[in-house]
Write a structure and sequence with these properties.
Oligomer: heterodimer
Number of helices of chain B: 14
CATH class of one domain in chain B: Mainly Alpha
Strand content of chain B: under 5%
Strand content of chain A: 25-35%
Structural class of chain B: mainly alpha
Largest interface: A-B, 22 and 18 residues
Largest sheet of chain A: 6 strands, mixed
Number of strands of chain A: 18
CATH superfamily of one domain in chain B: MetI-like
CATH superfamily of the largest domain in chain A: P-loop containing nucleotide triphosphate hydrolases
Order of helices and strands of chain B: HHHHHHHHHHHHHH
Shape of chain B: globular
Shape of chain A: globular
CATH topology of one domain in chain B: MetI-like fold
Distance between the termini of chain A: 51 Å
Helix content of chain B: over 70%
CATH architecture of one domain in chain B: Orthogonal Bundle
């Protein structure tokens, strides 16, 4: 079991209010990702759940039990840190065994569990090495091993992949997802990388300046962002946000259109622009164009669509995929096409 | 481009360095040589450097007159005892300052250091009276206590700079893993800080071994360490330089040997944090 309830929680550091009162419900077995720009309070929120920071107000409940005042160890959670935070003076075996030793578990049982975890994580050959002799990916696996042997009610991940190179990050992403599938334990995962958020999460929590901007499944956030912040943050390349006459014609202050919802043409279209940069990724091309009357617009087009810097391109938005926002930046209903 | 160092420059710099090193070492060498002279040779003019009548009679006489091994034992008890008690107090203190600092932590550290700037004689009378009234004069425990307190600021400061280098996340991981504060310090922090703790220990043993002001003033015979042992050959004996030299050589030899074997560790400890 591992449901986490955050009730009216706030956190201040001196004068600075990092997290104003927020509420959040994390269900048992869910993979929840906290995502947001740096300094948005996502790591602080995770540390509040872990008990590494004390809340300034509000309550934290795990499985319905109030743990606001409980020490980190009493909360039954395990955490994986960005820096791995392995004990450098202990072998891999002792690193993984450490939480079990702290729980005064029987040595024979400890050995069995450590070997079990090592097998799952492909660490069996490295059990007698020190963390300093391992690669980044192996170290991160040891950190995960140390977390899983405890059989915690929930795992907390604090940007665990940001110290790894891109290829390894992709592999570890799959491994963590796979682990979640096997263990079916609640996982709370902090990242600033929206690819991690989109690919791994059951539920994404978008944070901005300590406030929760939106909670929802990856596709919900992609399809119906609640406000301009979420619209701009989720999706890569970013959604094009257009103000002015075009937005007014759609009865909105701002109109958003994702780069993938623009139809390109070399002959004709609604908007005419000049290509500034064409980023050819192979399958896709990211076209950055300066559109007359609108300014810079990014379009995601087929890799076969060959244009170069300085050429003219026509772009037509798929109006059924338009996002409209009012003057407070909140989403309005779907665009009224033809109105 | 690397700086060019000519051979001539190298020779000149080496000569200067050796001269300075010899000048610094000369008093110790002279004491050592004098300890093997007769009292007559010791005060001869012009001073005799190597060609004199070598004798070990000073050592035999010094040992006959005062019990060297008692004082040696006292020095060991006082230096090691005060260092170990100091470490037991300073490790948790430095932990708190490095990993759970408050707004006042820096001030407390500065205040602790400021006590080392006060001339110790300013506190002599009150401490002497406290020692007298508590029956601690000339007792090993009394000296262990006072030297612990005298050197505590330095131990805390050294450990603090060491602990600052240890990533806090590792201690947080230990906390998440169910370690109590005590276990966190014993199983995680201390083993990680072993090099730092070792150099602090060594330096502090040397400081305590050489401490002369408090040991001279608060001990006479029973608890007297080697500092008092040397001093007992200076004033009343007047011109007996050879015996004084023999006593000094015997007093500094152990710590010199310890220092020689641990110099790598010591240099690392003293320059820690200065170079990353």
């Amino acid at each position: 079991m591992g449901s986490i309830t955050i009730r009216n929680v706030s956190k201040t550091f001196g004068e600075a209010k990092v997290i104003p009162n927020i509420d959040l419900e994390i269900n048992d077995g869910e993979f929840v990702v906290f995502v947001g720009p740096s300094g948005c309070g996502k790591s602080t929120l995770l540390r509040l759940i872990a008990g590494l920071e004390d809340v300034s107000g509000g309550q934290i409940l795990i499985d319905g039990k109030d743990v606001t005042e409980a020490a980190p160890a009493e909360r039954g959670l395990a955490m994986v840190f960005q820096s791995y935070a392995l004990y450098p003076h202990m072998s891999v075996r002792n690193n993984i065994a450490f939480p079990l030793k702290m729980a005064n578990m029987d040595q024979a049982l400890i050995n069995k569990k450590v070997e079990g975890a090592a097998k799952v994580l492909n660490l069996t050959d490295y059990l007698d090495r020190r963390p300093g002799q391992l690669s980044g990916g192996q170290r991160q696996r040891v950190a995960i091993g140390r977390a899983i042997v405890r059989e915690p009610s929930a795992f907390l991940f604090d940007e665990p992949l940001s110290n790894l190179d891109a290829a390894l990050r992709g592999t570890m992403r799959l491994e963590i997802s796979d682990l979640h599938y096997q263990l079916k334990t609640t996982m709370v995962y902090v990242t600033h990388d929206q690819i991690e958020a989109m690919t791994m999460a059951d539920k994404i929590v978008v944070l901005n300046r300590g406030n929760i901007e939106q909670v929802g499944s990856p596709l919900e956030l992609y399809k119906s962002p609640r406000n301009l912040f979420v619209a701009g943050f989720i999706g890569s390349p970013r959604m094009n946000l257009i103000e002015g006459d075009y937005a007014r014609s759609k009865n909105a202050k701002t109109v958003g259109i994702r780069p993938e919802h623009l139809l390109p043409s070399k002959q004709s279209g609604l908007w005419r622009g000049t290509v500034t940069v064409a980023e050819h990724l192979g399958a896709d091309t990211f076209l950055h164009a300066n559109v007359d009357g609108l300014g810079p617009i990014t379009a995601r087009v087929d890799g076969e669509f060959g244009v170069k810097h300085g050429e003219t391109v026509y772009l037509t938005p798929d109006e059924s995929k338009l996002h409209r926002f009012d003057d407070k930046g909140l989403a309005l209903g779907p665009a009224l096409t033809g109105a | 481009m690397a700086r060019r160092i000519t051979n001539r420059r190298k020779v000149v710099i080496s000569l200067i360095a050796w001269s300075i090193a010899l000048a610094l070492f000369f008093p110790i060498l002279w004491t050592f040589l004098t300890s093997f002279k007769t009292e007559g040779d010791a005060v001869a003019t012009p001073p005799q450097f190597l060609f004199f009548h070598w004798t070990t009679e000073n050592y035999i006489e010094v040992q006959a007159r005062s019990d060297y091994f008692l004082h040696f034992f006292n020095s060991v008890v006082i230096a090691v005892g005060s260092t170990l008690i100091g470490l037991a107090i300073a490790i948790p203190a430095a932990w708190a300052m490095a990993f759970a600092p408050t707004k006042r932590t820096k001030d407390i550290l500065m205040w602790m250091l400021s006590t080392k700037m006060m001339p110790p004689v300013g506190a002599l009378i009150p401490i002497y009276l406290i020692f007298r009234n508590m029956g601690l004069l000339d007792s090993r425990w009394g000296l262990v206590g006072v030297l612990t307190l005298i050197n505590l600021p330095i131990i805390v400061w050294m450990l603090y700079t060491y602990f600052k280098e240890i990533p806090g996340e590792i201690l947080e991981a230990a906390r998440m893993d169910g370690a109590s504060l005590m276990k966190e310090i014993v199983y995680v922090l201390t083993p990680m800080a072993v090099p730092g703790i070792a150099s602090t220990l060594l330096l502090n043993i040397i400081l305590a071994w050489n401490e002369a002001f408090w040991t001279l003033n608060l001990s006479t015979s029973e608890a007297a360490p080697l500092t008092t042992f040397i001093a007992s050959y200076s004033s009343p004996e007047g011109l007996f330089y050879a015996k004084l030299s023999a006593a000094s050589t015997m007093a500094i030899a152990p710590i010199l040997i310890l220092g020689w074997f641990s110099q790598k560790q010591l240099v690392r400890g003293l320059t820690f944090g200065a170079v990353k």
